[in-house]
């Protein structure tokens, strides 16, 4: 896929309905789809000498997933969330999804430039390429598993949904996600490095763990589960680290491990991964909450995703107002479907009134961005390092 | 119908609970007592909903069939190699991993099959929703993988990772049917190996590798595990047709209701070729399940399934012929009978 095609597809996203866009912004990086980002990423790909869109191709082209595609065809006319996920993976592979693999490759390339690196100077070792691939596989697997919503919930959301079709969709979502994870697992074992197996398995456990603190989609916020949501900066950072930071952080650490760097860059790797994710999430959260007014969709006022309640500005406000009890003010029970929903509009206007909170978010974003950038300073200078810095700045720019 | 079912119970499963004094629990597996509490320690988390759900099946109940086989095979191989007979720390880790991968896959299976009952209680997905259940499964298997890495042996990691791949590919095989009748049986056996036997076989292989460099020993352990695993699943599929929901912890003919054609149905096809079209449409029309059930009872299908299971048990015993006589060997030999004659 060349840049022009890529851009036209990304441009087309603006016309798509809100849930799809939301799904894509969940993919991690902010929904900012301007050409700067595309340029930064293409340059980065040139440095690693490898188009990252090919990273998970091996798994995507397997017999198993083509069987899934066949079943998915039956679902095309339905509103099963797996379709949105699949669309996200295919259409957006250039932009959103493969970014994690790209970062791992850049990181690997950068440490390979170090004097003490073993023989293959300037080479991205095969093992590190495998690492990038399996990082993507894990990330994609979780996207697919998140596309799962209880059949009952789906039926409530839209009475046109047929039960058997929704059931088929869920079945496919579980199996394809498992398939991607199994592929990652085998690739991981073939690296023949137990430390790396430990780190990457930890990140899978962390992501599953994080899901229980930050329920991503579908499940309507149960008033009793509000107490699990983060209500302080520290809680928020911990939760984001589990659900997103752990993967990048452990992948970068693994890249160091595979380069036999004796832990020289280990601290830099985990600090960079963690802070990059926190900075970009802080940015994404600010945009998500303040932009709600601009996206006046037909049911833009309310949505069934509970994540707005864990967006950084909301978390900071909750902290000021006495914790999770305050969050209850923004949960509403729909009379028709009897599901609890988040009052996004009310949340958004509450946040907009509090300039100090947004300033605090800005400060948190800046703090993590600077920490990520200073972690990178430990790496040997070179275009890979500069590219990582540029990516960091682009992801966290307002 | 009820009468026919009872008849078959007594014919093919002469060893009901009462007549089977030596079940799985009769071998004095002292190292099994802490199995579930150890797993719970590994899975511990402060997030309450996850904590409740991930330790839900590790409640000390269940047959512990897999860890028991793994532990006996460990002792057998250790004894054979003349090293300390006791199960080593790493071998014990394999037992834990076997149970964790097994439970993780069960949790996902129940989501895929929309099953509400498991091991006589409500399934995880019934309690906390499909979405959460999938994450619980991922969490359990990821922790198994972490435990695996702590063994620090790349060969072992490769062997165990193969299991995860096999289980997932087995699930895919279950979704697809082959047209040809001969192929169908082959397909069924392949699915059964990947979904069930691979776990036992490769765990046996792993503990053998941890104990010995002798390829014959490793291969024998693998063959024993593979064959007893196949027999285990065949009997499971057989029990689906005869056991009441009380003894199996899940409703009878559950497989048929899910649209799955297992060995008894495939054997019944020989006598009732009409069954073929029912298999292809996954028993989804009214009366299909009853008709298939009737066809199974009106043929020698259950007998043939049992014979096939017996054959696998025989092969499992054969795999052990290279080992000297010992209490462990005797226990493993007897275990094949327990598998064959179990009623739950």
TrEMBL record, chain A:
Superkingdom: Eukaryota
GO biological process entries: isoprenoid biosynthetic process; ubiquinone biosynthetic process
UniProt keyword terms in alphabetical order: Transferase
A cellular component annotation (GO) from this entry: mitochondrion
Alphabetical list of InterPro entries matching this protein: Isoprenoid_synthase_dom_sf (IPR008949), Polyprenyl_synt (IPR000092)
Molecular function per GO: prenyltransferase activity
Pfam (any one): polyprenyl_synt
NADP is among the record's keywords: no
SUPFAM superfamilies noted in UniProt: Terpenoid synthases (SSF48576)
Gene3D superfamilies referenced in this protein's UniProt entry, alphabetically: Farnesyl Diphosphate Synthase
Family membership: Belongs to the FPP/GGPP synthase family.
Protein's name according to its UniProt entry: Decaprenyl-diphosphate synthase subunit 2-like
Gene name in the database record: LOC113474070
TrEMBL record, chain B:
GO biological process: isoprenoid biosynthetic process; ubiquinone biosynthetic process
Keywords per UniProt: Isoprene biosynthesis, Magnesium, Metal-binding, Transferase
GO molecular function: metal ion binding; prenyltransferase activity
Cofactors (names): Mg(2+)
UniProt-listed InterPro entries: Isoprenoid_synthase_dom_sf, Polyprenyl_synt, Polyprenyl_synt_CS
Name of one Pfam family that matches: polyprenyl_synt
CC terms in the record's Gene Ontology section: mitochondrion; polyprenyl diphosphate synthase complex
The keyword Magnesium appears for this protein: yes
UniProt family annotation: Belongs to the FPP/GGPP synthase family.
Protein's name in the database: Decaprenyl-diphosphate synthase subunit 1-like
Species of provenance: Ciona intestinalis
Record gene name: LOC100175803
């Amino acid at each position: 896929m060349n840049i022009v095609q890529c851009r036209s597809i990304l441009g087309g996203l603006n016309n798509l309905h809100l849930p799809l866009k939301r799904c894509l912004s969940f993919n991690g990086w902010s929904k900012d789809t301007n050409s700067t980002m595309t340029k930064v990423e293409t340059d980065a790909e040139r440095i690693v000498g490898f188009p990252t869109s090919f990273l998970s191709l091996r798994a995507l082209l397997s017999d198993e997933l083509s069987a899934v595609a066949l079943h998915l065809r039956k679902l095309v006319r339905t509103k099963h969330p797996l379709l949105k996920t699949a669309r996200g993976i295919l259409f957006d592979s250039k932009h959103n999804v493969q970014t994690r693999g790209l970062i791992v490759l850049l990181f690997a390339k950068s440490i390979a430039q170090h004097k003490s690196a073993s023989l293959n100077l300037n080479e991205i070792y095969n093992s590190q390429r495998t690492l990038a691939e399996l990082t993507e596989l894990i990330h994609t697997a979780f996207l697919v598993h998140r596309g799962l919503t209880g059949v009952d919930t789906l039926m409530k959301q839209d009475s046109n949904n047929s039960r058997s079709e929704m059931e088929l969709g869920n079945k496919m979502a579980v199996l394809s996600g498992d398939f991607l994870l199994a592929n990652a697992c085998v690739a991981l074992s073939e690296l023949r490095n137990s430390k790396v197996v430990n780190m990457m398995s930890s990140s899978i456990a962390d992501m599953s763990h994080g899901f229980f603190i930050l329920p991503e989609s579908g499940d309507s916020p149960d008033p009793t589960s509000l107490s699990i949501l983060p209500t302080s900066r520290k809680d928020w950072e911990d939760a984001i680290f589990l659900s997103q930071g752990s993967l990048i952080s452990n992948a970068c650490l693994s890249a160091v491990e595979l380069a036999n760097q004796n832990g020289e860059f280990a601290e830099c790797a985990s600090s960079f991964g963690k802070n990059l994710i926190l900075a970009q999430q802080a940015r994404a959260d600010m945009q998500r909450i303040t932009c709600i007014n601009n996206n006046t969709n037909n049911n833009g006022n309310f949505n069934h995703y509970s994540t707005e309640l864990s967006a950084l500005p909301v978390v900071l406000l909750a902290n000021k107002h006495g914790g999770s009890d305050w969050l209850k003010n923004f949960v509403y029970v729909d009379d028709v479907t009897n599901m609890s929903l988040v009052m996004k509009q009310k949340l958004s206007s509450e946040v907009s009134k509090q300039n100090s909170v947004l300033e605090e978010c800005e400060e948190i974003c800046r703090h993590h961005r600077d920490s990520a950038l200073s972690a990178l300073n430990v790496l040997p200078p070179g275009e890979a390092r500069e590219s990582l810095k540029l990516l960091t700045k682009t992801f966290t720019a307002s | 119908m009820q009468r026919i079912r009872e008849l078959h119970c007594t014919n093919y499963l002469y060893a009901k609970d009462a007549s089977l004094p030596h079940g799985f629990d009769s071998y004095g597996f002292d190292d099994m007592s802490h199995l579930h509490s150890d797993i719970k320690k590994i899975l511990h988390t402060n997030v309450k909903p996850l904590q409740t759900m991930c330790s839900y099946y590790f409640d000390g109940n269940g047959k512990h069939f897999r860890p028991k086989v793994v532990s006996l095979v460990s002792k057998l191989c250790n004894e054979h190699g003349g090293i300390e007979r006791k199960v080593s720390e790493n071998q014990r880790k394999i037992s834990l991993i076997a149970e964790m991968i097994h439970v993780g896959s069960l949790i996902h299976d129940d989501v895929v099959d929309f099953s509400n009952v498991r091991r006589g209680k409500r399934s995880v997905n019934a309690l906390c929703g499909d979405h959460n259940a999938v994450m619980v499964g991922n969490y359990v298997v990821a922790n198994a993988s972490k435990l695996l890495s702590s063994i620090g042996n790349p060969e072992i990691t490769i062997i165990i990772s193969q299991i995860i791949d096999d289980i997932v590919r087995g699930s895919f095989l279950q979704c697809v049917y082959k047209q040809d009748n001969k192929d169908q049986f082959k397909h069924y056996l392949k699915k059964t190996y990947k979904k069930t036997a691979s776990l036992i076989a490769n765990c046996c292989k792993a503990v053998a590798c941890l104990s010995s460099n002798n390829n014959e020993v490793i291969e024998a352990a693998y063959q024993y595990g593979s064959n007893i695993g196949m027999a285990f699943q065949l009997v499971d599929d057989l029990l689906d047709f005869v056991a009441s929901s009380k003894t199996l912890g899940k409703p009878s003919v559950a497989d048929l209701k899910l649209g799955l054609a297992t060995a008894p149905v495939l054997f019944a096809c020989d006598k009732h070729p009409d069954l073929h079209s029912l298999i292809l449409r996954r028993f989804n029309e009214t009366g299909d399940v009853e008709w298939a059930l009737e066809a199974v009872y009106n043929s020698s299908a259950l007998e043939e399934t049992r014979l096939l299971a017996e054959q696998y048990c025989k092969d499992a015993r054969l795999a052990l012929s290279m080992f000297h006589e010992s209490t462990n060997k005797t226990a493993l030999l007897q275990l094949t009978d327990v598998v064959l004659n179990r009623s739950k």
